[in-house]
Design brief:
The protein has helices at 13-22, 31-39, 47-51, 66-73, 79-88, 103-107, 113-118, 123-133, 147-153, 159-185, 230-243, 268-278, 296-302, 317-323, 376-389, 415-425, 442-450, 465-475, and strands at 2-7, 26-29, 45-46, 95-99, 139-141, 194-199, 209-213, 220-224, 250-255, 258-264, 287-290, 309-312, 330-334, 345-349, 352-356, 367-368, 397-401, 404-409, 433-436, 455-458, 478-481. The protein is of the alpha/beta class. The strands form five sheets. Strands 8-13-12-11-9-10 form a six-stranded mixed beta sheet. Strands 16-21-20-19-17-18 form a six-stranded mixed beta sheet. It has a five-stranded parallel beta sheet with strand order 3-2-1-4-5, with helices on both faces. The relative contact order is 0.06. GO terms for molecular function: IMP cyclohydrolase activity; phosphoribosylaminoimidazolecarboxamide formyltransferase activity.
């Protein structure tokens, strides 16, 4: 049996090749892979020894030769194929091990087009596709993570196993080519997603649904509980975006992708209790995300009500023991929760998708437009409220105080109605501030005045801003414009 090994990523390749050698496999290799294996004491042949042709064009042409591709592509049960390779002196290759040049990694590190072009692999994809096409006779291996599994199955590899490895190989080359095409075009992009699992149903029981994943940048583990539902996954995404916006210990409760409470504190327990107090009813049956490790104290509070999902970077052993008593709760650990990038956002629309960057808050850029200036405490509360309101469905407003949402009004077609909603629902109006995701008119200022709210923040940007500022001055209310709108639909 003969294996062709040519890898850019050398992870585990010495150990893998050594095991093949022990099992009497011949090994053919190229360039740096050949040197590494030979220096490790592994018996290995160069491609040149097989083809009789030296590498040319600075290594651009190494394996593109009939004695390589004929060795891979010949069908073992085809007598004409076998007669041809015998005449040509070709010995069949039974396994191809290849990892591609790191094109996607390179484009994140340099803008030098010559360097980038040199990272466009030609021979690698050709070998991979040839082996994958002929998977009934040739095993294709494109991922170092599969080396041990291949060795475990090597003595009795089924056709189905070969097929699955071929599928993975074609996915690898397809993703690679899409990355090159997207980069060179500068405008086009491709979504490369694979089925992770079929879901029980979609938003409603009569809708079919499935979960597809692309590049898995979030390190997610389901520590406890049954399969995540379509709605769970949707809510988790919304919740994670909230807690990633805050550096201090933070918790959020989510229902139908909308926050029903956000809290920050000196510790996670304080943050969660503030979140809970915002809306002690809506949180029931919702999901909670936290941006610090859940310890025993926090777990004891979380366990007092029914929650569908709890997300955190980590759960202590004691916290897990308390929370996992409830069989219907899902515990989701995202170890790099505060580090991974959420990336662009996509929505399906007519004939395609619309794409946008993540909505970022830059609170440093704001203007106090009223005569009354905010106190230091009010300014801190306004910053918190403005961070919170961008996660609220538009038209959205938030009342907040001391790092806690006191009431959240969202999804109203008229902004003044959202303001009326939070004023009606808040547990207290004493010292709260208001944040709005879009500009408002003087009628909102009148509502603030009537209920003793002394500070508000909004993007501004209306042709009636002057009227709003005058109303704020007459009411002795602090008004801050950020000049950045934060709609969410």
């Amino acid at each position: 049996m003969r294996a062709l090994i040519s890898v850019f990523d050398k992870t585990g390749i010495k150990e893998f090749a050594r095991e093949l050698e022990k099992r009497n496999w011949e090994i053919v290799s190229t360039g740096g892979t050949y040197n590494l294996l030979k220096e490790s004491g592994i018996k290995v042949m160069t491609v040149e020894e097989v083809t009789g042709q030296r590498e040319i064009l600075d290594g651009r042409v190494k394996t593109l030769h009939p004695k390589i591709h004929g060795a891979i592509l010949n069908i073992r049960e085809n007598t004409e194929h076998q007669s041809t390779i015998l005449e040509e002196g070709i010995i069949s290759i039974d396994m191809v091990v290849n990892t591609l040049y790191p094109f996607e990694d390179t484009i994140t590190k340099t803008d030098n087009l010559d360097e980038i072009i040199e990272m466009i692999d030609i021979g690698g994809p050709s070998m991979i596709r040839a082996a994958a096409k002929n998977y009934r006779d040739v095993l294709i291996v494109t991922d170092p993570c599969d080396y041990q599994d291949v060795l475990d199955n090597l003595d009795s590899i089924s056709e189905d196993y070969r097929k699955q490895m071929a599928i993975k190989a074609f996915e690898t080359t397809a993703r690679y080519d899409r990355a090159i095409s997207d980069y060179l075009s500068g405008e086009n992009f491709s979504l490369n997603c694979k089925l992770k699992e079929n879901l029980r149903y979609g938003e409603n029981p009569h809708q079919k649904a499935a979960y597809y994943v692309g590049e898995e940048v979030a390190e997610v583990k389901i520590l406890h509980g049954k399969q995540l539902s379509y709605n769970n996954l949707n809510d988790i995404y919304a919740a994670v975006k909230v807690v990633k916006d805050f550096k201090e210990p933070t918790a959020v409760a989510i229902k139908h992708t909308n926050p029903c409470g956000i809290g920050t504190g000196e510790n996670l327990k304080e943050a969660y209790l503030k979140t809970y107090e915002c809306d002690t009813e809506s949180i029931f049956g919702g999901i909670v995300a936290l941006n610090r490790e859940v310890d025993l104290d926090v777990a004891e509070e979380l366990s007092k009500i029914f929650l569908e999902v709890i997300i955190a970077p980590k759960f202590s052993k004691e916290a897990f023991e308390i929370l996992s008593v409830k069989k219907n709760i899902r515990l989701v650990e995202i170890s790099n929760l505060m580090d991974f990038e959420v990336g662009r956002q996509f929505k399906q629309t007519l004939n395609g998708v619309i794409v946008q960057d993540l909505d970022e808050v830059e609170f440093e850029k704001f203007e106090v437009v009223s005569r009354r200036k905010p106190t230091e405490k009010e300014l801190k509360d306004l910053e918190f409220a403005f961070k919170a309101v961008k996660h609220v469905a538009s038209n959205g407003v938030v009342l907040a105080k001391d790092g806690s949402t006191y009431a959240i009004g969202q999804g109203q077609t008229k902004r003044a109605w959202a303001v009326e909603e939070v004023i009606h629902r808040t547990r207290s109006l004493d010292g709260v501030v208001l944040a709005s995701d879009g500009f408002f008119f003087a009628d909102t200022v009148e509502l603030l005045k009537d209920h003793g709210i002394k500070a508000a923040i909004s993007p501004g940007g209306s042709i009636r801003d002057r009227e709003v500022i005058e109303a704020a001055n007459e009411a002795d209310i602090t008004l801050i414009f950020t000049r950045t709108r934060h709609f969410r639909h």
